[in-house]
Design goal:
It is a single chain. This protein is an all-alpha fold. It is about 70% helix and about 0% strand. The chain has one domain. Helix 1 packs antiparallel against helix 2, helix 1 packs across helix 3 and helix 7 packs antiparallel against helix 8. It is flat and about 65 Å long.
Length: about 210
């Protein structure tokens, strides 16, 4: 067999091997992304539920403030940043606005849900949640859609296709963030802000939301 043919076959085999390995790494990346983010979301929803129920049970605002302050101090001491009083109240708000845990979308991160907490209209909030999950919006992309009143414009417009096309086109200009560099994720994993992963790991995790 001519050497040129052998080289071509070797190149094809190498390319096939590369693509197979690439698929494994991409699958692992997506699994890791979903596992970390939904672990955060579930934990914070449960914390919000527990604190809210404890406050309702005791029915004293002064007691609730004292308990929350003490809880925040102890959690911060043991688990690091991300558990101050303000964040704990965010978790309580999260539970109140999304009281049915089974309706949470595992595709979304805690950063997504924090942004959704600012949407007052319940129908709009649910719509943004489901749309962000189904369209794989990054937190920045979700923020843009909410800031430009995408849901409200769709509801009011007679030409919904044009509104959607315009929104999709502008969304492409919003760069997705790297989830593993998200300060919220780093705090949850008790990693220092500015933490730099090994290059091999960064390559595996890179571009989940690109």
């Amino acid at each position: 067999m001519p050497k040129e043919v052998i080289h071509i076959e070797e190149s094809l085999n190498t390319e096939t091997l590369y693509n197979s390995v690439k698929q494994i790494l991409q699958s692992a990346r997506q699994t890791a992304y979903k596992a970390v983010n939904f672990a955060m979301v579930t934990a914070y929803w449960q914390i919000g539920k527990m604190i809210t129920e404890d406050e309702l049970k005791n029915k004293r605002a002064e007691y609730g403030k004292a308990v929350l302050r003490n809880l925040a101090e102890r959690l911060t001491e043991e688990f690091g940043k991300g558990f101050d009083e303000r964040e704990l109240r965010k978790m309580c708000q999260f539970y109140r606005l999304f009281p049915i845990g089974d309706t949470l979308r595992p595709e979304l991160s805690w950063s997504h849900y924090r942004r959704l907490l600012g949407v007052e209209n319940e129908d709009a909030r649910k719509w943004y949640m489901n749309e962000a999950a189904e369209q794989v919006w990054s937190t920045r992309q979700l923020d843009r859609q909410i800031s430009t009143l995408y849901y409200e414009r769709l509801q009011l417009s007679a030409d919904k296709i044009s509104v959607k096309q315009e929104a999709d086109a502008k969304l492409q200009a919003v760069a997705p963030e790297m989830f593993i560099h998200d300060p919220v994720v780093l705090e949850f994993l008790n990693l220092p802000n500015g933490f730099l992963m090994p290059r091999s790991c960064r390559k595996v995790l890179r571009g989940k939301q690109a």
